Fold this protein.
Amino acid sequence: MDFIQPLVWIVIPTRNRSADLIDCINSVNKLTYNNKRIVVVDNHSDDDTINQLYRNFPDIDLLVLEKNYGASYATNQGFTFALKNNADFVLRLDSDTILDENYLSILVKSIRPNTFEGVLSGTIYYYDQPEKIWFTGGHLINWNLNIKFLRNINNQILKENDPIDVDLVPSTGMLISNKTIEDLNGFDEDYLVYYEDFDFCLRAKKSGKKILYVPAAKLWHKIYSNKKTSWTAINWNKSKMIYYRKHANNWFHLLILICYAFLYSIFRAIIPKEDRGNRGPLVPTLTGLLQGLLKNLNFRS
């Protein structure tokens, strides 16, 4: 009996990344998985993204937002469009992502698609260092709500198609069942950008959904690690504080997290680290933490 492929809608939010977006869509079009559709959500680009998109892919589905509402809002617009058009699953991609041609086939074949509820992802590599792993999946560190990456990921494990239970995966490359999106009402729009993926995974776990990492499914992400700007520092740390407020176990735990966030930001200003830390100067970092601490929030289940 032939395997019946569920319909997968691929949602790609983007802003001002026309060249990356075209590369991403070209990789999607090379997927061996056939039953797929693409929708691009343009978050009010002010470059040539829309013209380039229609020039290269004249028949593509495109949603154009009237202003930049943030990554979570743009993603949710894509989710809504996909579900209205009968998506069984949604693959959410950053526009600077390149997929291996078997990425989607491996993910779908690793589960029972007609009964699965949850999220799957694969191994994410650095685009400019194609053999170096950027992200696998990981488990929640309860005291600081951070991620503990899977250890002992060797070459043999990276060939495995069997899924591994985890707590957290990043948003780019997420394959999500339609029921999971419906039950969780998509991404939480209190997050303009950053941490919306960890929030989504934790809410999914709390509601009984599965979060799975499939090592053999591969994709590559264009990581711009040198872009430590004031904007990034503000929004990264604002979202971090919102994430802490939403997922702290109790008020005492929240107090610990707040103290940790401010002390960590000062420590990383004194002793910077290339691939982590404040994501920018100290003053914008502290500004972001304060904004996240004072923001009125909508708490979701």
